[in-house]
UniProtKB/TrEMBL annotation:
Family: Belongs to the ST7 family.
Natural source organism: Cuculus canorus
Keywords: Membrane, Transmembrane, Transmembrane helix
PANTHER family, alphabetized: SUPPRESSION OF TUMORIGENICITY 7, SUPPRESSOR OF TUMORIGENICITY 7 PROTEIN-LIKE
Main location: membrane
InterPro entries per record: ST7 (IPR007311), TPR-like_helical_dom_sf (IPR011990)
Protein name (Swiss-Prot/TrEMBL): Suppressor of tumorigenicity 7 protein-like
Amino acid sequence: LPPVTVFLSTLTPKFYFALTVTSSFISGLIFVFEWWHFRKYGTSFIEQVSVSHLRPLIGGVENSPPAPVAFLAGENEPSRQNMPECKVWRNPLNLFRGAEYSRYMWVTGKEPLTYYDMNLSAQDHQNFFTCDTDSLRPSDTVMQKAWRERNPQARIKAAHQALELNNDCATAYVLLAEEEATTIVDAEKYFKQALKAGEMIYRRSQNCHSQSPQHEAQLRRDTNVLVYVKRRLAMCARKLGRIREAVKMMRDLMKEFPLLSMLNIHENLLEALLELQAYADVQAVLAKYDDISLPKSAAICYTAALLKARAVSERFSPETASKRGLSTAEINAVEAIHRAVEFNPHVPKYLLEMKSLVLPPEHILKRGDSEAVAYAFFHLQHWKRIEGALNLLHCTWEGTFRMIPYPLEKGHLFYPYPSCTETADRELLPTFHEVSVYPQKELPFFIHFTAGLCSFSAMLALLTHQFPELMVVFAKAV
């Protein structure tokens, strides 16, 4: 200790000033390099080195597994060439306005649907349920005006007027089932009446559809009405607990109208089969629809991940996996999770209940927060039912972001994440919901640390320059 004391007593204020300036300069260089590395690669260099090299040496757990093998890479190539613009899709599992959305508003006083969302639905109804020949039938003429009405009560009143003119007006029953019925049971009764009327009109249109283009348009409209009614009846059965009946109705509908796959009825079927825990049937549906030539969705990608996770999740332990490595089945499960997260990065926070859910909108944006809300609202229970599935998701999902090329002009398994999703999601989701935004990378800890260290050492250098004697006393005391 005496030599140390003698050494400290001989140090001058110039030494302390030079020391603080040097440390400030070095920490500033580290900060600049960290910031540059983060902007270019999306990660902290120090954190990346510590995770990749230091943590295994001290026995830590690495949650991110090896990058997926190349057999999925082919899925990315054709989609990169044709990057789709942000298209809003009808939510296959949208709720009933009277029986579900309205009840939420009565209880909470909050409007669950935005004007933009309801306006899109009004356009859908006009496209699906009207045609040029409606002017020949008074009841259909009334319904044509009803679908354009903004006020719900005016629409309901017009539907009743249409039924007074024609007791077999299927679209009037559809409107009443969606908006007037306050329970699913009441909605199902209206839809059964719509089905009876719709089948009769559909058979009539089939017999004369070849007579003129107007008759062909009427057949398309009547087909749309019939498919819509049957689908909603299947959803009523699902909500009322008659799940096997709902599954049969969905399968029959898909066989009867195979060309209407764009309506995504298979997503309703997947959810119902998961409720039955018929995992082999779920896999069979995925084998048909999880194809490179077909558009993806969160339901497809996350259901595929759930089935692969189910095979290993019960026995999965991150500590054990870090010691012995991942088995083939675990690698497949983790790759499936990474694929799902890259397609829609918003879903995990809802499944892990890190973010609260709201009622799903009537329209969704694929890969957006609206799709994540719609998926998690119905599928969270299926993830909870499989022991360890959420734990596996929790341990692996963040590793996706270290694998996706940065900046996001590139993609890994899919085309780059669209930049327009945030704007559309804010239009689709209610104002009281905090919209998830991606990519929104939080600054790594070491960037904050080096910035603080640089600022602190610079302040010390300034104080040493201004008050050399006082800082020497302080340094010796420390």
